[in-house]
Amino acid sequence: MNSNYKPLFETFSLKSGVDLKNRVVMAPMTNFSSNEDGTVSDSELQYYGRRSGGVGLVVTACIYVSPNGKGFPGEFAGDSDEMIASLRSLASTIKEKGAKAVLQIFHGGRECPPHLVPNGDVVSASAVASEQKENVVPRALRDEEIEGIIRDFGETTRRAIEAGFDGVEIHGANGYLVQQFFSAHSNTREDKWGGSIEKRLRFPLAVVDEVKRVTAKHAKGPFLVGYRFSPEEATTPGITMEDTFRLIDELVVKELDYLHVSLQDFWSLPKRGADETKARIEWIQERVGHLVPIIGVGSIHTPDDALKALDTGIPLVAIGRELIIEPDWVEKVAEGRESEIKTTLSRADQDRLVVPTPLWQAIVHTPGWFPLGD
């Protein structure tokens, strides 16, 4: 063990009783590579298997809980019991390598491409288009549909339990449906699901309550529940740090295992609702870190970056692109071989890195997304 990086390799126990062998998490990353029927593909299993040996926890790519929640081509499905066998293969692939396996559960809401949802019927909290999809105006969900989607989050949690996962992460970040209900930009409702911040919180908290209820009913052993959120939105109106403080104050009383802060840059500063004397993650850690573990993420490339992140007091740090470029990132740090960590990709690297073709195509055709060495 490299003593310089010992803090990264300390064990950590979550509230639910799930024990992690170290402090490094594989961040959830969409890979566009599932089978047409929503089952996990062989190439995805190989991809996860290649990256699950070093980290303490793997959070999978998001899985849609409702038929009208599919946000990406090649996204795997959690909306029916027919998917349990496929999900079981994913959970066992990750766990066999020594990491804990967490399924990220999701509904894309207004960000769903119309061709991926039944009858092109894109839904959201309100009939407000997103900045990313200005030409797609979603249909506002009816009350009974909202209740149905809340139940779908619970049903997908049950399937995760039956498939052998160690937990689920509720995807309340990145502008998807859970966040759409919380945001004053996307939620202009005037019923019990919108208006005041208390009402805009109702859907996210109802999802948490349902997932926790199902976990208590069906899990036979330790099963974690985490929640991922984006602390701010660029739109006006939109989520501010002040709003996020309200959200996390409510979440900490839910006995969650962790809060996962979705950031492009771990050290990014607040724009609205908190001053710039501290990074967003530091504000969040100061406010609730003593009550619930925080996972930080965002532009953490080197082991020194990861150590610096832990110095803020957060107990867990997630890395994403680094594990695509260097599947043995954690092992090399542990063995004192950090100088051997690869930091760039070559276009000839796909097979060596065990990356599914749809993800590889996205990498090489998205300028600036990954550092290409040729």
Fold blueprint:
Layout: E1 12-13, E2 19-20, E3 24-26, H1 42-51, E4 57-64, H2 84-96, E5 100-106, E6 123-124, E7 139-140, H3 143-163, E8 167-172, H4 177-182, H5 197-200, H6 202-218, E9 224-229, H7 241-252, E10 258-261, H8 280-288, E11 294-297, H9 303-310, E12 316-319, H10 321-325, H11 329-334, H12 350-353, H13 357-364
Parallel strand pairs: 3-4, 3-12, 4-5, 5-8, 6-7, 8-9, 9-10, 10-11, 11-12
Antiparallel strand pairs: 1-2
Helix pairs in contact: 1-2, 2-3, 3-6, 7-8
Task: Give a structural overview.
It is a single chain. This protein is an alpha/beta fold and 374 residues long. The chain has a single domain, classed as Alpha-Beta Barrel (TIM Barrel), CATH 3.20.20.70. The chain has helices at 42-51, 84-96, 143-163, 177-182, 197-200, 202-218, 241-252, 280-288, 303-310, 321-325, 329-334, 350-353, 357-364; strands at residues 12-13, 19-20, 24-26, 57-64, 100-106, 123-124, 139-140, 167-172, 224-229, 258-261, 294-297, 316-319. The strands form three sheets. It has an eight-stranded parallel beta barrel, surrounded by five helices. A two-stranded antiparallel sheet has the order 1-2. Strand 11 (294-297), helix 9 and strand 12 form a beta-alpha-beta unit. The longest helix has 21 residues, at 143-163. The radius of gyration is 20 Å and the shape is globular. The two termini are 34 Å apart. The mean pLDDT is 96.
